[in-house]
Amino acid sequence: ETPAPENKVINVCISTLGGEVVDLEQPVLSDERVEELRARIAERLEVRPGQVVILHGDGEWPDGRTVQEVLKPSETHAMLSIQKLPCQLRPQQYEEYIDHEAT
Q: I need a labelling partner for 11 at 20 to 30 A (CA). Which of 18, 55, 67, 79 fits?
């Protein structure tokens, strides 16, 4: 039987695109889901989770995966950039919220 992968603390430095450092009270663990991390960051920034975009490497971290799954196997630490959006809707979602019959 294969043993379960060890849940490790990942050394993460988190800052907004404006340079504000985001200090999380609890460490980031390798099996933490991206949406859980997004919610913790949002709480610290006093915004809704949908307003937080987690950027690392060449793009945005997707929900539904763990921190370890989105990091390269050789990465033992990560520098994350956080973009705070003005609202929870992404621009590609705007169209579905427009009532075209009312205009």
A: 18
